[in-house]
Each structure stands twice: as C-alpha cells, then as structure tokens.
C-alpha cells in the first residue's frame, strides 16, 4: 500500500512546479565548451519570461576578440497552450589566446529587478582546427565578388586581360606593385560610445581572382555590420587606376576609453601571368595581402554637466510620444507610442523612464527598429509601443518624457523632451467581447491558473483511493479464488470488433524538390536566405522540434549525433551569415553551398 506521505510529496512538488512556471531567469550560454584557437563561438545572454528588459551591461571579454555583437533578439513560443518568451543579447567571439578562457557573467534589469548571470569557461586548445568554425571570421572559403567578366575581355582594358610580365619582371613584384589591402577609418580619435566607420578595401590594377582569407575580429567595442550598394568603383592613386572592392564595412562603438587596436584583414589573390614574347608560357601565381593595423584613441566622456542618469548613448537624436487615443472609456486598451529618431548608436538606445500617473496600468512594450545601415553614422527610428489602460473614470496626464545623450559634434550633453500627454478616461462601458474585441480581457498574472492546483490535488487523492481499494481486493482469501475457479464456465461473450484507428499522417518535406527550386533562384541574397531556411527546416523535421531556433537545434543535434554533423551544420550557417554583409559572396559559391547543403540533408534523412 502506498503511504499518504508519498502523495503529500507529490502535491508539494506539483505546487512548486506551478509556482516556478513563468518565473524570470537570466543565463549565459556558449555554442561550444571546447574549441580550437582559430574557432569562433557564439555567446548568448538570455532573459526568459521577463518584462521591461533593459539596462544590459555589456561584458568585458578578456582574452577574446569580438567578431560581431551585441545583437538583440526576441522570441515567443507556445507549447501545449503554455507560452514563454525570451530576450537575448548575442556576441560572436574568437579567442585571442589558448587556455581556459572565461566568458563573464553580467547584469540586466527585468520587471524593475536586477538579475545576474554566472560566468562560464571555454577550453581553448593550443592548436588550429583544420576545418575551423568561424562565424564570419577567418579562412573564409568564399571568393570575393568577381571583378572581371571573362566574356567581356578586351585587349585595351588592363582589368579584363591577363597581366603580362615584361623583361626583368617577376610575378611576385608585379603582383605587389599592383595589389594591396587598405584599412580606412572615419577618425583616429573619438569619444567612448561614439560610432566609428571602419572599411577594409582591396585595390587592384591588374586582373586577379581574390578570396577572403581572414576577416578582422574586434575587441572592446560593439559591432554593426553595414551594407553597401557599391559595385566595384575605380579609383586613381598616384596616377594609376585601381579597381576597388569592399572586404568588410562595419560601424564600431568603443565601450571604454583607451587605445582601440583594429585587427587586420587578409585577402588571397590568384593571377595568371603571360610572358612577353612567349604567349604560350603562362605563369600562375598566388599571394596574400593584409591591411596595416590602425589604432583608435578613445577619449573618456567629459564629467562636466554629465547627467546623473546618463543613458550612455552618443550621437544626435530627437524624440516624440503620443497616445493613440487620448479619450477612451476606463478599462479599455490604449497604446503609448514613443519614437526616438537619430544617428549614432541607435541600436543601443534604451527605453527612457516613464512616470506613469496613478490609476494607469501599463504592460510590456513592443519594440520596433527601422535602421538604415547604408549610411554612416547608422541612422534609424526606434519605436516602443506600450499598452496601457485607465483603471477608473477621470483625467490623467503622462508627464513629459526625457532622454539624454552626448553629442560629439557639440562636445556636450543634450536632453530632448516630449510634450506631456493629457488623457481622459470616460465612464466604463458594459459590453461583451463580441461587441468590442479590443477590450483587454486577459489576466496578465497567473491567478487564472490557480484552480489547477485543487483540481490536481483532487485527482491525486482519487488515485490514492483507487489504489488502496485495489490493495484490499488483492488480499482476499485464496479460497474465494479457488471457489471461483470451480464455478461452471459461462458462455463467452461474442467478440467485439473494434474499428481500426486511422493514423494521422504528416507529409514530410520533399527536400529534393525544394533544393531544385532553390538552385533556380536568380537573386544571390535570396538564394542564401532560402538555403538557410531549408537547412533549418531539415533540422526541425529530423529532431521533431518544429519551433526551435538555430542554437536549440544544434544543441539537440549534438546530443543525438555528436560533434561531426554539428560542425558541418554550424559551418554552413556561418557561410549563410557571410551573405548578410559581404559583397564577397558570388555565383561561384553556389555549387559548393548546394553540394554541402544536399550532403547534410542526406545525412539527416539517413
């Protein structure tokens, strides 16, 4: 017989789980706990089930170089009717040294409470990975955009014909006299938090086939990848005409004062040289070119007139706020729309403090970003839509909202204000949800689920009672069982034929047809976008995780199939990510990517 204490323990456990559901948590995770020194990892700082997430303190990554980040992501999932949400700050890092490197913990604010996550350690082996997982970093397998079209070769165009070696010239000298990589910066001195434009460009005066060998990594700053619509412009330097190709274009925001060294970029270039007077003698030659290092001197922000609640943002901004409906009945939904527009570190702009009047309840804001990454400084509009409602009839005023920033052009701290927003809440109208579906009827707390606890308790007690009765019946005398066995046999009842259960069949994706359609996609960026989605779909079907994201899928794949297949998938995802910023991806890469994608899908289907 099962003791009552067992069921009491079950009740306590159930109640504890119920209380834990929906609680806010803050954690840090890494894509791999053990890597080579030329690998890269992704670090994710995640807040789960938190409202009003703000004031993320960017960690200081000692011993690491930042490839990109922080980038911000939000996700909502629903499983069996239960919802959860998360907000993440993501960094891509590359180790600057071997050994056990610390990924530091940090703090963040959610629900007006500060949370701290614990640090973790990554073991960096003191040797290179022959197939590095580099998340946009070095040893990129992709060629840069093709500078020359083989079908348009003309004898009088030096860019469209193979270079010629004259008497006394060597391929090495010819190449180095006509090809170089240069690092351009918008300024060599800036304030902490002030954006800097960094461009790595390849210059060539002869016909070559270039490919990125090493992308630069950054430490001590946030990184925003910028896009460019430039093809391959020509530029004259010291009387010589060069074709110019963008290797990488980023906006950096230094996080602290001091010297900020910028890493180098390397490009491998191949060329076929003709020998003058001997057209049949062609000499192939390869050389690697790297940019010269540049150091940015980062000045501290001035202490004079620095606001006590300084936002930490540098640039130039304007702000406005409005209520979508300033006159609504009490208890009905309304929205405060707050927009901050400007140039500079727009991605880091936090939600300003709002002094809500008494009797007004507000809920989690919805953030929208519209950012132009074509121009420097990065411009954009960050909009917060904040739901609210008045709890009683009457008038209220949302006071003016202020936001401060440092303007590097003026060298001073600036403050922008919105106007105060008058509100009127009229008498509450009694109507059903059918009449007005905009009325807020959802309870944003867990009170509506409290009934589950007594229901579960009754179910557990009922199960206990049934099992107790079963134990008593099992202890009846054996004689009763024997007497029953000697009783005349009864005529067996006619068998009942059960209707067959027809299983519900989910048709799997026809990946062969999907790959064929993908291969016919004419737009190169759309090709990589669809290829990424196809790989994600294949992983979701293989792992039966239809709503999981990339990192969840790779973690689950590692547990079921080990590191080999995970590294292949992660490498392919890294190739897809290259298409987000580089004009470095070209049609020549499509066959290689298609072959890798089809190979991985075949392994997943096996």
Automatic annotation (TrEMBL):
Q: Which organism is it from?
A: Deminuibacter soli
- Alphabetical keyword list: Membrane, Signal, Transmembrane, Transmembrane helix
Protein name according to UniProt? Protein BatD
Here the segments flagged for biased composition (Polar residues) are 130-139
Segments traversing the membrane: 449-467
Query: Which Pfam family, giving just one, matches this sequence?
Result: BatD
Q: Which InterPro entries match?
A: BatD
The region called Disordered is annotated at 126-148
- Give the signal peptide, or none: 1-22
């Amino acid at each position: 017989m099962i003791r009552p204490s067992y069921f009491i323990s079950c009740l306590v456990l159930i109640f504890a789980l119920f209380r834990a559901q929906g609680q806010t948590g803050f954690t840090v995770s890494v894509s791999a706990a053990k890597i080579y020194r030329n690998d890269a990892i992704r670090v994710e700082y995640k807040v789960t089930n938190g409202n009003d997430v703000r004031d993320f303190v960017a960690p200081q990554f000692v011993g690491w170089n930042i490839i990109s980040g922080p980038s911000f992501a939000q996700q909502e999932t629903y499983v069996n009717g239960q919802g959860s949400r998360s907000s993440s700050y993501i960094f891509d890092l590359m180790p600057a040294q071997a050994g056990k490197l610390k990924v530091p913990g940090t703090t963040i604010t959610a629900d007006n409470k500060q949370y701290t996550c614990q640090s973790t350690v990554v073991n960096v082996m003191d040797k290179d990975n022959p197939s590095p997982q580099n998340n946009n970093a070095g040893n990129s397998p992709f060629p840069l955009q093709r500078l020359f079209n083989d079908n348009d070769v003309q004898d009088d165009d030096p860019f469209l014909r193979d270079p010629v070696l004259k008497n006394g010239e060597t391929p090495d000298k010819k190449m180095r006299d006509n090809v170089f990589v240069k690092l351009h910066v918008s300024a060599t001195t800036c304030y902490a938090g002030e954006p800097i434009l960094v461009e790595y460009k390849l210059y060539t005066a002869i016909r070559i086939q270039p490919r990125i060998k090493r992308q630069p990594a950054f430490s001590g700053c946030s990184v925003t990848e910028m896009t460019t619509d430039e093809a391959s412009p020509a530029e004259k330097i010291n009387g010589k005409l060069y074709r110019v190709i963008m290797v990488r274009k980023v906006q950096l925001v230094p996080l602290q004062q001091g010297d900020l060294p910028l890493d180098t970029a390397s490009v491998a270039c191949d060329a076929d040289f003709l020998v003058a007077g001997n057209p049949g003698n062609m000499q192939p030659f390869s050389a690697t070119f790297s940019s010269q290092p540049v150091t940015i001197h980062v000045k501290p922000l001035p202490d004079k007139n620095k606001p006590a609640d300084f936002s930490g943002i540098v640039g130039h901004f304007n702000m406005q706020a409005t209520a979508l409906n300033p006159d609504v009945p009490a208890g009905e939904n309304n929205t405060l729309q707050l927009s901050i527009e400007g140039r500079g570190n727009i991605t880091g702009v936090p939600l300003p403090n709002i002094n809500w009047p008494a009797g007004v309840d507000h809920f989690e804001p919805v953030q929208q970003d519209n950012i132009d990454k074509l121009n420097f400084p990065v411009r954009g509009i960050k909009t917060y839509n904040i739901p609210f409602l008045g709890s009683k009839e009457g008038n209220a005023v949302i006071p003016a909202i202020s936001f401060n920033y440092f303007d590097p052009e003026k060298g001073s701290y600036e403050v922008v204000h919105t106007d105060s927003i008058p509100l009127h809440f009229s008498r509450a109208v009694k109507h059903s949800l059918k009449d007005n579906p905009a009325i807020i009827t959802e309870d944003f707390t867990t009170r509506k689920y409290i009934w589950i606890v007594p229901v579960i308790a009754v179910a557990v007690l009922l199960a206990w009672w049934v099992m107790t009765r079963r134990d008593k019946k099992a202890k009846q005398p054996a004689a009763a069982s024997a007497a029953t066995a000697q009783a005349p046999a009864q005529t067996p009842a006619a068998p009942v034929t059960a209707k067959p259960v027809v299983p519900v069949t989910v048709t799997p994706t026809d990946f062969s047809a999907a790959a064929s359609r993908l291969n016919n996609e004419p737009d190169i960026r759309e090709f990589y976008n669809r290829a990424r989605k196809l790989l994600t779909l294949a992983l979701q079907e293989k792992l039966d995780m239809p709503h999981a994201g990339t990192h969840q899928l790779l973690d689950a794949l590692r547990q079921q199939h080990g590191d080999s297949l995970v590294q292949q998938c992660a490498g392919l995802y890294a190739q897809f990510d290259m298409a987000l910023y580089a004009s470095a991806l070209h049609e020549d890469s499509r066959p290689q990517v298609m072959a890798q994608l089809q190979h991985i899908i075949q392994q997943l289907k096996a």
